Amino acid sequence: MTTFAYYPGCSLKGTGRAYEESLLPVLAALGIKLEELADWNCCGATAYMAVDEVKACVMASRNLALAEQLGHRELVTPCSACYLVLNKTKQYLGESRAVAQVVQRALGLVGLSYQGNVPVRHPLDLLVNVVGLPAIKERVRDPLTGLKVVPYYGCQLVRPYATFDDQDRPTSMDRLLGVLGATVVPYPLKTRCCGGSLTGTLPEPGLHCAYILLKEAVKRGAEVIATVCPLCQFNLDAYHHKIAAKWGPVRVPTVYFTQLMGLAFGLPARQLGLHRGLVPFAFEAGARRPEREVVPPDRPPPATPACRAGGPLAS
Amino acid sequence: MKRNGEPEIRVGFYVCHCGHNIANTVDCAAVARYAATLPGVALARDYKYMCSDPGQELLRQDIQEHRLNRIIVASCSPLLHEHTFREATRKGGLNPFFFHMVNIREHAAWVHTDRREATAKAQALVHAAVRRVAHHQALQTKRAPIHPAVLVVGGGIAGIHAALTLADAGKQVFLVEREPSLGGHMARFDKTFPTLDCAACILTPKMSRVGSHPHITLWTYAEVAKVEGYVGNYEVTVRHKPRYVDASRCVGCQDCIKACIYKEPKFPDTFNAGLSKRKPVYLPFPQATPQVVVIDPETCIQVKTGKCKQTCLEACVDRRAIDFTQRETLERVTVGAIIVATGFKTFDASRAPAYGYGVYPNVYTALEVERLVNASGPTGGAIVLRDGRQPERVGIIHCVGSRDEKTNRWCSRVCCMYALKLAHLIKERTGAEVFNFYIDLRTPGKGYDEFYGQLLEEGVQFIRGRVGEVTDWAFMPEEEGHLVIRVEDTLAGYVRRIPVDMVVLAVGLEPQADAQAVRRLFNMSCGGEGFFLERHPKLAPVNTFTEGVFLAGCCQGPKDIPDTVAQAGAAAAEALVLLDRGYLEQEPNTAFVLEDCSGCKSCLPLCPYRAITIAPETERAVINEALCKGCGTCVASCPSGSIGQNLFTDQELFSEIEGLLAPAAAT
Amino acid sequence: MIEIKRTIKYETDRVKGFGREVMSVPGCEQLEQCIQCGTCSGVCPLSIYMDHSPRQVMALTRSDFKREVLSSVTIWLCASCYACAAECPRHIRITDIMYELKQRAIQEGVYPRRFPIPVLAREFTRMAQHWGRITESLLVLRLLWRTNWLEAFGMWRLGLGLWRTGRFSLRHESIRQRADLTRMMASVDDVVIGALPPPAANHRRGAR
Ligand SMILES: Cc1cc2nc3c(=O)[nH]c(=O)nc-3n(C[C@H](O)[C@H](O)[C@H](O)COP(=O)(O)OP(=O)(O)OC[C@H]3O[C@@H](n4cnc5c(N)ncnc54)[C@H](O)[C@@H]3O)c2cc1C
Ligand code: SF4
Ligand code: SF4
Ligand code: SF4
Ligand code: SF4
After folding, report:
1. Are strands B70-75 and B591-593 parallel, antiparallel or unpaired?
2. What is the pLDDT of residue C208?
């Protein structure tokens, strides 16, 4: 068993608890243990940046310091916002000596220090690049054959600090879902913002962002949207009644990619928190239509134009 | 100072103000006063511009009036004026190698701010020179012949024009092109901006003239493998790739193509940017020069497996031009000068993922569209989408892979204009509504801005804004089934979504993929972007830092055809200057072997110019003066210190060092 | 009647030095390099609602139009999705500049009364600083209370749904070492990031 330090973030203890509920058993099934930082605090999220960047840095760096203290080589955090904030803080501290000094002083007051050693990684990165798709494939018991999934990465995971995938056209999750046996729907909006940070405050623009994503997913025949972030999940799951009232119904469930993995691994739905979705999602493994043609993810094959013409994406 | 049997040393010393360049930081009068106190100095002056005619005249007269026999000028870099002052010395009646130059501008004035310290440094340098010149000897320059032939690398319009210019002047030219035909990028265009003359009409005659010119040896499907030697005498090894067709027998009848075992063309035609197919045996394009077919080793069954019926060979049984036994061959030629004209490659549009190239079939690069609009292209000049429909709305995106920190930082200079050209052609041939999305429109050329004006009249739409994304998801009903361009119309002040049928990416110009290897081959430098570096951006734009190697065309940086041709002409002229002079004046700084050489041979393999041999009679090393370039490697390496070098004798160097370290002057 | 306004700007309308000040904040320096290409607006999903496009915000900031920028709804509409920063051909971290502008607007109090975003930001930071963690349900309740409590009734359906699925909690999440956190935060109370020396020059390029 490999162990990683684990920073869940506030959402995973609140509205996003299904994420943690599915993440831990799925990783365990692949031989990975997550050790939660003792007494971690809120990362500061994006709202804090708007108030005071130095304070945001101090807040986030306490977690980084705790992670270093724990002694595991890498820190895993599933929430895209936390992932962004922690990485951004690392970059800030690296870039600006002045900010780093202020932060060190603050940490020093409570007997902590920060060396900048612990990389912050997202479970998706971990699964695709550390565990590897072959190992995941091996673990699949009930392939998601025929399930049409939209892989939705959201904005803050791949931009601007992630280096493990392309900022415009990431493919990690596409490939992962493919290995689970699902049919991956080509979806050009996979990194478009869901508006999550606005729905609470400026509902119209926030919901409109979500509406666009949901509408396109429905139009492309998706049965479910897979997400990597608790904020996206909430925003795409929780406001269907409001969106329907404004622009018409666009009903499609949104689940965590780890929940789909759990299903494919044959873990019980209840244990994966699948009952927590407001738009219910159910998948009966094995009882699906016969295998059908899998639409490849929308990363182009190295562009030899001849094979592009009339390729599966020509539609 | 007087040496045994030799006349007394009488140094004439001059320090130049170089206007304010030196005088601002170095106290020239103090340097002259200091020099006057040094032993052997008969005369010391400071002067405003030594390189001026009166300055040179002063030097000449002083030599005669004051019986000077050594001259020192403390001024700028020897690169600039060593030659000038040597000439003045010669005119005064002295051997020019009794002159020595001290660089107190680049080495003192321009690199220091403290006047006192800069002056002290200048004085130390002067002291070193005064000590050194005493040991100078009268030397003679030698002349090396220049081989009257030129190698041109790259057969685009730059290489073609340079080769023809040289050949028409009667020089022997070897033109090496790595593709099976001449022509480069220009051969792919239909029309050229801004006059819209037909590219084939102006290029094909030049290509065939190259093919038939008595003074040009054209080697296509070949590459330069190795370059040895030096200016005037480059030994070049050329690698001929096997084309499996004997070029001297093939008449271009193309019977073999018809007979090929593949009944239908099956493989992407690279000349058409993959928009059509070809067979393993093919003629690159109708006007190809030479008119010789080529067999693609990647796809030909016979080449790959040796198990083909070889129907092509049967078809060519009379001429027996097809030859599967061909192997790579090497050939050596000697040339006096080299012109590098290897051109550019276009930006790989899939590196700008937001524009969907390689994902959406109706997103094209400009090069693909050049082929589409070309009368001899894959569609015979019909502008149609991959599904055969004619586009009704076309968006042309500028600056793709240019002016972008994420990809290439530079402006590619020609894409604005070719984007206008394509806009015009598309509008003319299809009547489509055409949008150009630009950041800045760059049309600075003769007739270029007028061309822009013409397009405005034609109703082409210009939207100032760099496109954010090209997608296929529709929001509005009118967008269904179209590609959507999302852009801020920065002048109108709105973000807009514009549905189109076809997107054309005006891809930028980049250095060739193998630019670094080619740079090393010819011992050139590259700028930060990777284009080959000219010796001086203004005053030596076609020269490189290697003598006798010149640049032409886009390998030096993005430029259009008029500029390319002008530069190719300039490069040819520079090469002609070299060739027509016929010889090269060589510094007499050659090495020579002293009596006590033991014949250990350790210097032999070290000489980069293979100038050292062992004389059988004496069993000592001898250095061929004509070959020695004065690099000094053998001098430093000889274990018994038996090699000396003119202008750098031990005596000269040691006394120079002593002078430099002599106690500083009291200023 | 058509309302006619003078829209010209005089030099006195500028707050000279404002642009420089913003550009001296770590992460915002590259703004100097903006070529006004509009890529940021072109990719910004929220630009459809903005009064000034992100590009215009960059231009206004650089030209010292402080009042115009800080009262623009754009800075509040920015959802921090980083699409602009990822695509900007000059590596300008537009999102970070938006943060900087939000901070300044909050400091100067130039936003509409009962405008929810600054209130949320404030409530968020208070809760984060005090408890060390955020309890989302409580945060939303506080926000509604401070801005538009009528809206709270419109949310009953969502609340119920969350309650039913076990995602709604009224118990405060908290860390144990709250005192430590308070001390740390207090120690930087008076640090102004713009007043810190800028980062080393070689770090200025490259948003990633
Ligand atoms: C889409 C597009 C449209 C354009 N339209 C116009 C226009 O309308 N008007 C205009 O004035 N300009 C136009 N241009 C610019 C024009 O293409 C260039 O100015 C011109 O082609 C430069 O010629 P060149 O000989 O320097 O380079 P190239 O045309 O690139 O030729 C270089 C040649 O060198 C060969 N080569 C490369 N490396 C080696 C090697 N190592 N050994 C041997 N051979 C080698 C290549 O195979 C090639 O044949 C356009 C450019 C593009 C991309
Ligand atoms: S190889 Fe022979 S058949 Fe083919 S084109 Fe040449 S001459 Fe004709
Ligand atoms: S020439 Fe025009 S299109 Fe090309 S890089 Fe320059 S500005 Fe952009
Ligand atoms: S994308 Fe960058 S350079 Fe272009 S307008 Fe926006 S901030 Fe300026
Ligand atoms: S970060 Fe803000 S300004 Fe930039 S694209 Fe996203 S919402 Fe728009």
Report:
1. unpaired
2. 34
| pLDDT, tens digit, 9 for 90 and up, residues B598-612 | 999 999 999 988 889
Domain shared by B51 and B178, yes or no? no
Question: CA-to-CA distance for A274 and A312, rounded, in angstroms?
Answer: 33
- Sequence-separated (6 or more) residues with CB below 8 Å from residue B232: B144, B145, B146, B147, B336, B337, B548, B578, B583, B584
The CATH code that applies to domain A138-314 is 3.40.50.11810
* C94 in the same domain as C45: yes
B381-419 pLDDT, tens digit each: 999 999 999 999 999 999 999 999 999 999 999 999 999
Q: CA A131 to CA A140: how far, in whole Å?
A: 14
Q: Choose among B181, B335, B171: nearest CA to B250.
A: B181
Tell me which of C108, C130, C154 is where a domain ends.
Answer: C108
- Give the domain extent around B78: 11-139
ipTM given for this complex: 0.86
Cβ-defined contact of A58 to C188 (cutoff 8 Å): yes
B479-488 b/e (C-beta count within 10 Å ≥ 16 → b): beebbbbbbb
In a domain, B651, yes or no: no
Q: Helices (H) and strands (E) in chain C — how many of each?
A: 12, 0
Partners of residue A305 in chain B, C-beta under 8 Å? 268, 273-275, 368
Residue among A14, A47, A205 minimizing CB distance to C167: A14
Are the C-beta atoms of residues B119 and B26 closer than 8 Å to each other?
yes
Q: How many domains does chain B have?
A: 5
Q: Are residues B485 and B599 in the same domain?
A: no
Q: In this complex, which of A189, A298, A309 lies closest to B359 when CB atoms are compared?
A: A298
Please name which ligand lies nearest the alpha carbon of B516.
Answer: 1
Q: Residue ranges per domain, chain A?
A: 2-121, 138-314
Chain B within 8 Å of C38 (Cβ-Cβ)?
Answer: yes
SS3 A5: strand
Closest atom, ligand 3, to C-alpha of B412: 5
Whose C-alpha lies nearest to ligand 5, atom 3?
Answer: C78
Cβ–Cβ < 8 Å for A75, A116: no
The token pair that represents C131 in the structure block: 């408890």
Per residue in B95-120, pLDDT tens? 999 999 999 999 999 999 999 999 99
Q: Partners for B (CB, 8 Å, 3+ pairs)?
A: A, C
Ligand 4 centroid–CA C34 distance in Å is: 5
CB contact under 8 A, A212 and B275: no
- Asked, for residue C192, whether it belongs to a domain, the answer is no
Residues of C12-47 as b/e, b for ≥16 C-beta within 10 angstroms?
eebeeebbebbbebbbbbbbeebbbbbbbbbbbbbb
Same domain, C31 and C70: yes
Place of tokens 């041999």: B613
